[in-house]
Amino acid sequence: MADGTESQSRKLLRRLQAALAEAGAGQERLDRITSIIAESMGTEVCSIYLLRDSGTLELCATEGLSSEAVHVTRLRVGEGLVGRVAKRLRPINAADAPSEPGFRYMAETGEERYTSFLGVPIQRLGENLGVLVVQSQEERRYSEDEVYALEVVAMVLAEMTELGAFVGEGEAMAARHQRSVVLNGGIGQEGAAEGHVFLHEPRVVVTNPIAEDPEAELERLNDAVDQLRTSVDEMLSNAPKGDKEQYDVLQAYKMFANSRGWMRRMEADIRNGLSAEAAVEKEQSAARARMETVPDAYLRERLHDLDDLSNKMLRLLTGQGRDTGAELPDNPVLVARNIGPGELLEYGRSLRGVVLEEGSVASHAAIVARALAIPLIVNASRITTEALNGDLILVDGDQGVVHLRPEETVTKAFRDKMAMRAAAQERYSSIRDKPAETLDGTVIGLHMNAGLMADLPSLPSSGAEGVGLFRTELQFLTRSTVPRRGSLAALYSRVMDAAGGKRVAFRTLDIGSDKVLPYMKPQDEPNPALGWRAIRVGLDRPGMMRMQLQAMIRAAAGRPLTVMFPFIAQLEEFTEARNHLLRELDREKALGHVLPESVEIGAMLETPSLAFAPRQFFELADFISIGGNDLKQFFFAADRENERVRRRYDTLNVSFLTFIEQIVARCAETDTPLSFCGEDAGRPIEALCFAAMGLRTLSMRPASIGPVKSLLRRVDLREVRSVIHEARENGAQSVREPVMDWLRQQG
Ligand code: PEP
Ligand code: MG
Fold first, then answer.
1. What is the pLDDT of residue 240?
2. Which of 197, 269, 677, 715 could form a disulfide with 387, with the two C-beta atoms 3.0–4.6 Å apart?
3. N- to C-terminal Cα distance for the chain?
4. For the purposes of burial, counting CB atoms within 10 Å of the CB of 207, is it exposed (0-12), middle (13-18) or buried (19 or more)?
């Protein structure tokens, strides 16, 4: 970069700083800024467009264009050259703008006289805030240094916008973080919540983007980088051996912390007048913008790592720690980019809801949220940049929608919906002690799914007959070392105590695939969902499973014990797993422990292959439980974690229902008890259709028992069966519509 331009850029920033420091309303400041930029850059025009809403830009200040056009000229993001800069978050530098593709002539601005155009995005951390434009009459292509200088200025404008320096009248100049925002995400856990935002990681605010003394700033940057390198080295030497994922991340940190390119760019920014933190944030913004467009998942991960590292640097430079002392507000809704299961458990039930910018439906956090029965939305893009601590937030976990700082009318409609739910729950409590008996006298057993000790108090209040699925992963996922047999036995024993003699089906560890234990070497597998997981790990490395079985046997001590093995795909796997349990029973007996009063050994049917297993399998299993979440993903070959496809195939697709019917028939041949414990069992219409297909036991979230029971008690299953039969005969793809129509007719 030429020295001359460097000082020009610094001079420009200094003049801007003085202009910003002067008192005055937002509009006056913007006006002053446009004239300073035009003068410093030797252009006839300088204009600032700010986003009015997520799709529209508004001309908010100009030097050179018609002043009549200010707050009148609007264009859509993507429209004209200005709109294209906003859309692509990249500069456009055109010597002859009218001949550029996409040029749109805005007559009211009087811009016909200007030929050259340079527009740069005003963006903060990848978020689009507006566009800064300079134009000239002469046909000229702006130099790299000029583009760079304008970008630096745009970065300062973005920071000042965030700090509220340009607040004025009208939408485009409304204060930041005050507008209502609606974000769509993925459903991690159903349910609805109203509360106030609590940011897991409070944002760092840069209050001094422009600096007087580059030498002092360079020193601050170097000190911070030194500290960062030391801490990354420490993290690397303390990292648990064998955790490849963590190792990769730390190596990436190390690489960035030592990257000359990264340092050089930040040093240049500082020499051009930015403060050390503004230089870090400028790089961070560029990385965020790239993150949106990089298709390669690995590279995207690395850009995330750079983002994390930038946050660490900003904390070092500003002294703003993670713990700001902010207290949990009333009805807290946790907002985070992502969160580990242990951290989420620490917040525990105090939370009303969780909204994650990333995360996935089957992440560990989602498992915890499910266990805690807290509504969770994942993939809510921009939530961490939009939300401020204390903001009102509505979480609609049924639709996957978040309303941040909602309008009165939205809040009112949401509250009405919550009140209707509460009233319905109230109604359900009146049938809590009644059986789920249909009008034709069929009784369906309703059980609950659980995974935490904390779930068990819901057993009596939900009216569940027992625990149809106790997921045992959480105790393994939320700690850094393998839990001890003694502590597991104590936990399982407390679970049985809390169930008060009702049956609890303990599922052995279902890990692998997405559920990687912190102390287990992650496998590099092309298709983890089809890979080394659940019983496959249990049989190949039986140590942990045997320890778990011992803990279950000791917990039962004289009481009945029910164990089920996940993800059994063929008879032999079940026989082997069962033999492990039988051997452990013998061993425990020899060691003098009290054995369970009785032992039931079941299998989860989660792969289509098991439905076609030999008759001997059905004879050997004491019971079978359909793991519908997995079974459905394999039946339709549609990844349950992939938002693009996971809702593509309806559970009530006739093929899937016919398959369920066939499983029921196979179990009937051998009198093998059958249940269904995937999430679909808790959806009333699905539950009804499963019952019509012959299922007599369903296991679900405690909160679903009321709605499912209430519907079952209102219908005659024979009629439902004939509606399904007729739809099938007529070639329907899904029976949902016909069943819903029939239900409507019933009133
Ligand atoms: C299932 O697959 O339906 C199931 C109950 O197990 P998980 O959701 O834990 O895989
Ligand atoms: Mg499963």
1. 66
2. 197
3. 76
4. exposed
